[in-house]
Specification:
Mean pLDDT: 86
Low-confidence stretches: 1-21, 23-39, 41-91, 99-110, 399-403
Distance between the termini: 54 Å
Strand order of the largest sheet: 2-1-12-11-10
Length: about 750
């Protein structure tokens, strides 16, 4: 029968125009139109300010409203409690009215005297569940939901790109910028029924409903006993292959596949719509869609299209997993970072994204002996091997159950194997059910944040079995053993033995306090690098700025490892955003090395916020402090709350340094812009020296706008009736984009 159906599908499509969608309904065969990208309502809601702190503020309900419950009112006595839970049926959340951001009160209950104590078993299994709403060609909404005791204990809302990876908020529709926080707050603590009644946010209706659907599906997936006969979440589900070649939409009812759509992805990871496809692309996706509908993951590749079919099959598998109520992946979707095999000359690191138990994105790094990314300064063969290794890992599909070392790159064998090991360890961090061990097996490196000591620690059975300590010289290079003094050798031997026996409870050696403290800090770093628990921050260098003014701003380049500051460079930059160096104010020049040293001593984000301002440079000290905290914000893996922009004043300049702008952000949206023109010497032109065109463009940007957000804050574009004005406004727009990038996460 399947063969007859398949032949019917193919015959139908051959006789019709090249359509990229194949649909199989229970009764007849028909085509489903390719999805069009329905845009979110781009109105910006009026909303109370979102704090710029990184800790989530307590949100008080602004609207009180009773919600219906699906269980009978509970009855309580002073000594007797009746426990109730939610129903086990799978239901799509009911449509909710649109309101401005508000948090609903818990459902009101009545009290009656029960005849007897009754306990209803919680139908949901505790855990973390990542689910998605219905998909469309611009992406889909998702939710990472922590369910505990039948309620939402925590939630992170996702707005994905076509590659199904959470995207920066500022890239989204502007109406969404203010929707994340109130929706997340509304979901927390709710039962399934209560979550279905959460109000959507004005200006983000579609996404709000997508998030509600994702949360409901998380509860459905968490059910200990799934509804009989139901296999899929009814709707359209999206999948993307790891290499980002194809996007596949699979449409299901509760029991079976109904239709398939296939889109090629361009270099930006965006879906190529039907009208923009080349004839060759149209033919290819037609063949792929037919095979996927008929055979699913067993689709047979057309001759010469093996690579395309492999990618599309992986994308279909991804969509199918997202659609399944009983998704049995062993891993929690998300970002994870891990290290490979350490040695005294450095180590490899892999930063990966995992979805449905497979690798969907990866970045590889080669770190030096100080555990800081060497970038292009690494061994030439290792630098050359990076991109091919990434391509191999992604092309592999990396279904971890079948995972084995990706073939090493010639000339970089050691690094290739270490990268493989790092990827495997990242998957171990993602396990839903950890293996019970605290640390990985193997050798791990640690360095104190001032790069004075390197510790290599061997881990076996969650115990440190060996510690090797190396010291750095003033040039940041390891001191060879033969060049160590006898005193240094004795100190190292004592510290090595002590760290094995006592760990960081080891007391400092009298007279060798500096070396002892450095070794202990390096040992603590090694423990974190060996840990199977993912930290809160990404490792790497992050650049951020303090508040700007009409003479420039302050920049901080902060290098983080395990959330600790391991490198920092502070700069006073002018209106061209270039380092002023010794030409900056004398007090600022004097303050910079003092602040850099103090931030390194502070180590953590919390301590960095307490670093004192330097006398004579108070304003710049505060600006540097803001820049350091904003760098941490950029490094957050899971934001405590999502915002489009940080609050403050941010500077930008265009490519030829002829325009300088300041963008002021309040309530996490840009609302004010100031434009300055620079002369050939990089100085701000006086107002009476500006041309008519310059004045016109300046006035256009600086004229106050109605509403919360500035009219050129959302996807700004050049304007003008003449070529001169268009060119000039384009330069200002370029400067605005730089300022917005500085303000964004």
């Amino acid at each position: 029968m399947k063969k007859i159906v398949a032949l019917t599908v193919c015959a139908t499509m051959v006789l019709s125009s090249l359509v990229m969608t194949v649909d199989l309904s229970p009764i007849k065969i028909s085509n489903i139109d390719v999805v069009s990208a329905a845009s979110e309502a781009e109105t910006t809601p009026a909303k109370e300010s979102t704090p710029a702190k990184t800790t989530k503020p307590e949100t008080k309900p602004t609207t009180k409203k009773e919600t219906k419950t699906t269980t009978k009112p509970t009855t309580t006595k002073p000594t007797t409690t009746k426990t109730t839970t939610t129903k086990t049926t799978t239901t799509k959340p009911a449509a909710s009215k649109t309101t401005t951001p508000a948090v609903k009160d818990a459902a009101k209950t009545e009290t009656k005297t029960p005849a007897a104590v009754e306990t209803v078993k919680n139908p949901y299994q505790d855990g973390v569940y990542v689910t998605y709403g219905d998909a469309y060609s611009k992406g889909t909404e998702g939710a990472k939901v922590t369910i505990k005791d039948g309620k939402v204990a925590d939630v992170e809302l996702l707005r994905t790109s076509p590659k199904l990876i959470d995207r920066d908020v500022r890239i989204n529709y502007s109406g969404l910028w203010q929707a994340y926080e109130p929706m997340e707050t509304s979901f927390r603590g709710k039962t399934r029924e209560q979550a279905a009644e959460v109000d959507v946010v004005s200006g983000a209706t579609r996404s709000s409903n997508g998030w509600k659907l994702a949360v409901d599906r998380a509860f459905a997936r968490a059910q200990a006993e799934k509804p009989a006969g139901e296999v899929y979440f009814a709707g359209e589900h999206m999948g993307v292959d790891p290499a980002g070649k194809y996007m596949v939409f699979a449409k299901y009812d509760k029991t079976k596949l109904l239709g398939v759509k296939v889109y090629p992805l361009n270099e930006k990871g965006e879906a190529v719509e039907e009208a923009a496809m080349t004839p060759e692309q149209a033919k290819t996706v037609y063949l792929i869609a037919s095979e996927l509908l008929y055979r699913g993951t067993n689709a047979v590749a057309a001759k010469g299209l093996e690579a395309d079919f492999k990618a599309a099959i992986q994308a279909f598998w991804d969509a199918d997993q997202n659609a399944k109520i009983n998704n049995v992946s062993k891993y929690v979707d998300g970002f994870y970072s891990a290290y490979g095999a350490a040695r005294d000359k450095g180590v490899e690191r892999a930063d990966v994204y995992i979805r449905n138990g497979k690798l969907v994105d990866v970045k590889l790094y080669r770190l030096g002996s100080n555990l800081i990314d060497r970038g292009e300064t690494a061994y030439a063969e290792v630098v050359k091997a990076n991109a091919p290794m990434v391509a191999k890992l992604l092309a592999n599909g990396s279904y971890i159950e079948n995972y084995s070392d990706t073939d090493a790159i010639s000339g970089a064998t050691e690094s290739s194997h270490s990268w493989n090991e790092a990827v495997e360890r990242a998957f171990e961090k993602a396990l839903k059910t950890p293996d019970g061990h605290k640390y990985f097996e193997g050798t791990f490196a640690g360095v104190d944040n001032r790069s004075q000591a390197l510790v290599l620690a061997d881990f076996h059975g969650d115990k440190v079995t060996k510690v090797t300590i190396h010291l750095f010289d003033k040039d940041g290079k390891l001191i060879k053993e033969e060049n160590l003094t006898e005193g240094q050798k004795t100190t190292i031997a004592t510290l090595s033995e002590g760290l094995i026996k006592k760990g960081n409870n080891l007391a400092l050696i009298p007279g060798q306090e500096v070396v002892s403290a450095a070794a202990k800090a390096a040992f603590a770093d090694a423990l974190q690098n060996a840990s199977k628990v993912q930290g809160n921050y990404k490792d790497g260098k992050f650049t951020a700025y303090g508040d700007a003014y009409d003479k420039g701003t302050n920049r901080a380049d902060v290098t983080l490892r395990n959330g600790n500051i391991v490198g920092i460079d502070l700069f006073r930059v002018g209106v061209d955003l270039q380092d002023r160096g010794a030409s900056a104010y004398a007090d600022v020049v004097r303050a910079i090395p003092i602040l850099e040293s103090n931030y390194l001593l502070a180590v953590t984000r919390e301590n960095a916020a307490e670093v004192d301002a330097v006398s004579g440079a108070t304003s710049s000290s505060k600006a540097f402090s803001a820049a350091v905290d904003r760098a941490y914000k950029k490094a957050e893996i899971a934001e405590s709350y999502k915002t489009a922009y940080a609050n403050g004043i941010f500077a930008g300049t265009n490519a030829d340094k002829s325009v300088y702008v300041m963008v002021t952000v309040e309530k996490n949206v840009p609302f004010k812009m100031e434009v300055f023109y620079l002369d050939a010497n990089g100085k701000i032109k006086a107002a009476d020296k500006l041309s008519a065109d310059e004045l016109f463009v300046k006035q256009e940007f600086e004229t106050p706008t109605t509403g919360v957000m500035h009219k050129y804050a959302y996807r700004p574009a050049a304007f003008g009736d003449t070529d001169a004005v268009k060119a000039l406004s384009g330069k200002v727009v370029d400067a605005v984009k730089v300022a917005l990038e500085a303000a964004g996460r």
